[in-house]
Structures are given as C-alpha cells and as structure tokens.
Design brief:
- By secondary structure, this protein is of the alpha/beta class.
- The chain has one domain: P-loop containing nucleotide triphosphate hydrolases (Rossmann fold), CATH 3.40.50.
- It contains 7 helices and 11 strands.
- It is globular.
Length: 247
C-alpha cells in the first residue's frame, strides 16, 4: 500500500517523515521539497510526476541516500539513513538500492556481463558466485545471449535491459528509476515497462520511478504528483489508499 501520510505513524518498507530540501542560490533560498510524508510497502510500484524543477529527481536522490535532506528523515526496512556516515551510507546503498537511469550509464569498454557485475565487486562474493548472479540477472531481463556484447553492439532498449540487470544483480531492497524510458522509442519503452512490471509482480520488487510520460506512469500502482514541494495523489489504477493530504 502506498500512503501519502500525515499521521506520523510508522508503517511500510520505506518511511519518509517531514522531508524538506532547500537549496541556496546566491542570497535566495529555493524550497524544493516541503514536509513530505510517505509510506511505501514492499512490492509497491510508485510513479512520481511533475514539471521540470519540481523536485522529482531530488526526491529519488534522497530516498537512495545520494543526497542529504535539510530536515526530516528517510527510513528503509528499519534503517534510518539520513544521519548515517558516508561510509555506512555507501555500504547501505550497495545492499539496498538498485539505480536505473535514463542514459543507462554503462561503461563502454566493458561487456554486458562485466557491466552487470560491477555492483558485486563491492561484496564478498567469490568470482564464481558473482558469475552466477550475473547470469541470473541477464536471464531475467532476457539477454543471456548478449553477455559478451559491448554497449555499442546493443540497441538502446537492450542497453537499458543491461542497466536493469545491473540494478537487480545484488537483489536490492528497492529500485529507483529516473526516467527509465526517456531515451527510448515507444516500442522499446513498452518493453522496458513490461520488464519493470514483471520485476514487481513476479519478483516482488519495490519500484519508485520518476517519469514525464503519462503512459509510462499509468503502469504503476500509484501515481503521485509533486506540486509546490508536496506530494499529491494523481491516480490509483490498483487498490491503494491515501491518508489525508500531503503536508
């Protein structure tokens, strides 16, 4: 269940409480996020929409421990990450977060298999264990026969599949997807969204996604809009609930 929460009660895999983010531009303060409260359960698929500059990517970065809020807290599976040291946060991200970006961010001189293996180099897995994980991840995204191909030898959709395999290879707690179809044609975008839905429905992955595309957002369990730094429910194609309005 996805809940825009104002009660302060703690429920859900991901718990966001009173989240604020303010930037300084010269002598001016820019309030990007203001008092966000959000609960996301395991297996939920949430899409965030809003105009450019509304704070969507900032929110993903805060959820993934890539940025620090001005105030408020983010907790995942009982871990409160907003006050972790940088070293602990690096370890936490490696265990819990899979990132999928618009531009794939594959290393061009590495094969698909080597790109997928990169997150595992931070673990204590043996070489043979890493190979097994990589093979399983490439199989899930439908590219076991492209393991030795370099990014330049793949289509855009295939590159994004490799990027998704890299995101899931360490079996993270949740996935953060920032415009995962933004650089793809409609056919490839539909294929990537079908894959993400499969990760949610078949593998019980939790996915939080930023998108500008309403057709992509409609595939999610819940669509939330960022408006003036607050979250507003935009739709609930499946059974979800919202407790009150955004703070």
């Amino acid at each position: 269940m996805v809940t825009v929460n104002t009660s302060g009660n703690s429920t859900g895999l991901i718990q966001v409480r009173g989240l604020d983010k303010t930037y300084r531009r010269g002598g001016e303060q820019i309030h990007v996020l203001q008092g966000l409260n959000l609960d996301v359960d395991k297996g939920d698929f949430v899409a965030f929409m809003g105009p450019s500059g509304s704070g969507k990517t900032t929110l993903l970065n805060l959820l993934g421990g890539l940025d620090v809020p001005s105030s408020g807290t983010v907790s995942v599976a009982g871990d409160e990450i907003t006050h972790m040291s940088s070293g602990k946060l690096t370890d936490w991200r490696a265990r819990h977060v899979g990132f999928v970006f618009q531009m794939y961010n594959l290393v061009p001189v590495l094969t698909a298999s080597q790109n997928v293996e990169l997150p595992l180099l931070l673990t204590r897995l043996s070489r043979s264990q890493r190979r097994e994980h990589v093979e399983a991840a490439l199989s899930i995204v439908g590219l076991p026969d492209r393991a030795q191909h370099f990014p330049r030898q793949l289509s855009g959709g295939q590159e994004q599949r490799v990027a998704i395999a890299r995101a899931i290879v360490s079996d993270p707690t949740f996935l953060l997807c920032d415009e995962p179809t933004g650089d793809l044609d409609r056919k490839s975008a539909d294929e990537i969204m079908a894959l993400i839905e499969e990760l949610v429905n078949k593998h019980n992955k939790t996915v939080l996604m930023v998108t500008h595309d309403p057709l992509v957002a409609a595939r999610a369990h819940m669509v939330l809009h960022l408006e003036k730094g607050a979250l507003v429910e935009a739709g609930k194609p499946r059974e979800t609930s919202v407790a009150g309005g955004a703070a």
